[in-house]
């Protein structure tokens, strides 16, 4: 069955780790929106001090053809990213007319800062705070408490999927 999952949340909350593990568990393809933004130099166009909605929609345009290919062949897709503009989520959903599930990962700011600090290449506390503030302005989809161990969060997400 074709479906896709959007994993969204603040910097350092475990999005990529969860998306990678989910893609293995579900035999799905994984696309990191943050990597697409970096690879295609889409991070410089700013809006309100953040990467612009326009840049995120351009990233969506880039990932949709590949995603449709996989989905049309029955392979699930996992997308992860901050998704801090509601318009970006809605644009992706509009472009990918398949069953979908959106999960917002929730954790205290201190947890996100600590997880970022423990990365090979941390983004830093200021970046973590800025992205946290923007990402947590709204909730979308199913909320997942990820202040608990990531394995528990992954099991919870899978429980919502077909």
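^ Assign residues to that structure.
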């Amino acid at each position: 069955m074709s479906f896709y999952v959007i994993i969204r949340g603040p910097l350092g909350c475990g999005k990529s780790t969860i998306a990678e593990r989910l893609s293995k568990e579900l035999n799905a393809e994984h696309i990191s929106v943050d990597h697409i933004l970096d690879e295609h130099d889409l991070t410089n166009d700013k809006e309100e001090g953040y990467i612009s909605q326009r840049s995120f929609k351009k990233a969506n345009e880039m990932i949709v053809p590949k995603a449709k290919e996989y989905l049309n062949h029955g392979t699930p897709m996992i997308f992860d990213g901050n998704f801090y503009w509601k318009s970006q989520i809605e644009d992706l959903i509009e472009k990918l007319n398949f069953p979908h599930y959106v999960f917002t990962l929730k954790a205290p700011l201190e947890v996100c800062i600590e997880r970022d600090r423990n990365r090979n290449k941390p983004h830093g506390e200021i970046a973590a705070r800025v992205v946290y503030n923007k990402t947590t302005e709204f909730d979308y989809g199913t909320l997942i408490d990820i202040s608990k161990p990531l394995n528990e969060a992954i099991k919870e997400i899978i429980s919502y999927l077909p």
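Residues 10 and 132 are 5 Å apart (CA to CA).
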